From TrEMBL:
Ranges annotated as biased composition (Low complexity): 158-170
Segments passing through the bilayer: 44-70, 76-100
Location of the region described as Disordered in the Swiss-Prot/TrEMBL record: 151-170
Protein name: DUF6232 family protein
Amino acid sequence: MITYYDDRSVRVTSTAVRVDGRTYPLAELGMVWHRRGNRSWRVLAGRGAIGAALAGPLVAAVLGIGLAVWLHRSAVVTIAIVGASVLVGLGVGPLADVLFEHLDRSYARGSREWEMWARWRGRPVRLLHTGDALRFGQIYRAVQRAMESASATQKAIGSSGSSPRPRSRP
């Protein structure tokens, strides 16, 4: 038996698909398809908040430099304001790394709900429902590979149960 995917709630093998304790033998599964849900505004708003958090200190630094130039104060005051503004801008570096990581994970997870459906014993059944696009893609591909492997095995075995022999040319 080959395992194509395995996590805490989904296991795809060369014989069956198990989702949340429910097992569907590959021999009983027909067509498999997926549905994509609507975008989640919560996820999109979270991405916007991360973008604002990244831009905030940089905008503050630029405004500080502009303020220093606009005030026309002494060289010492102008240099102090510009220096503080540059430090604020540089301070965003370590924070930016963390924020970019969160942003990257947000795109990997996706902003939609995903469903995997299959025809099981003649009726449509929802196998999986998740908002994690990366995980969904891995599971969907594993099911495809398992079904392709199962159909190739069935084609290789003839109706009598023996392997087909090549015919001689006429």
